[in-house]
């Protein structure tokens, strides 16, 4: 199978413009302590520029206002956007809104798209994704939140946490069990729940390693929510009952590719800092760049980033050719490999900077804290490794005698080539 990651010259020009735009207009915002209102004022003209260039919400098809670029092009875009945490927002494809938009694009009715998707794409609404529970994270078949049909309504009860954007969202996409006795992956369904619905109890944004202090509601927070007898119209069901896992995969497949490419953008930024420091810092008689251990870090980082990039683009290409199902093994593989590469490169960059790398005078310490989460969210590394191993092992059969057993192979070869051996014996 031949893989083609090339893009036409016109799109290459768009990517080049994005590189400069992110570097010159968005990354400088990192060092300003802007509140939400000031951030909106600062980014509003940037968003307009993105829209004018046809790059807004590029993950969606043209009929929904997106670019319809496909996963390879989106991956190349996200590699650039991943350099700065603010860049996806400016381009209208930040999580969880981008994933929720993809989910609604696949499963929503026309009425639901008009009510929720269109204003979400316009930036007039914010959304949240409410799936993870205190007792159900890596194994979503253990979800306990229930949605029970009551006439023309569903009644939702349950306890969620790590609901991305939950404290600031205008609506939440909630995954809840509708058929507790059904097959494990047909038990749950997806619902749109307006944030102001009675019974939606926003408890807090959970402090994390990346944001260790409890803060007021903010975009990007991971919210703990209790749903108490939350009543919603039956038409707020997305798709059909039992479609929850299918819709989640439609959302998470592309999302994982985008995550991995953004991690490469972060890795590349840390790598640049590593190399710059190596060429600048003099210690123990030479530049760090002349020391073999530092050279090993640079070489290893370059190889790991190259491998992760090619693996991720391959997964994107397969998805473009055959949909999410064609790339499931690849997506699982890049999730754990890309997260490890991100962590390793940032760690080496911190090490080469010494105490400076440990301080907040550089962005590395914040990048490091955020990178640790990459090995957990969207499924922990271990779950994805099990998935990859199981899929690979399906291609092998157990054997009493190993297929490469030399005595057995020798006997078979002698039988197959008996004419040759007989001829050799006569000639001798």
What tags apply to this protein structure?
single chain; 428 residues; alpha+beta; four-stranded mixed beta sheet; four-stranded antiparallel beta sheet; 14 helices; 50% helix; globular
Explain this structure.
- With 428 residues, this protein is α+β, with helices and mostly antiparallel strands.
- It contains 14 helices and 10 strands.
- The strands form 3 sheets. Strands 1-4-5-8 form a 4-stranded mixed sheet, covered by helices on one side. Strands 2-3-7-6 form a 4-stranded antiparallel sheet, with no helix packed on it.
- A hairpin with a 2-residue loop joins strand 9 and strand 10.
- Helix 3 packs antiparallel against helix 8.
- The model has no long low-confidence stretch (mean pLDDT 92).
Task: Give me a quick take on this structure.
The chain is 50% helix and 14% strand.
Q: Provide the β-strand percentage band.
A: 5-15%
How many beta-strand runs?
Answer: 10
Pattern of helices and strands: HHHHHHEEEEEEEEHEEHHHHHHH
Q: Which ranges are low-confidence, i.e. pLDDT below 50, for 5 or more consecutive residues?
A: none
Cα distance, first to last residue? 47 Å
- In helices, the fraction of residues equals 40-55%
Assign an overall shape. globular
Q: Profile the largest sheet.
A: 4 strands, mixed
* Mean model confidence by pLDDT: 92
- The number of helical segments is 14
Radius of gyration: 25 Å
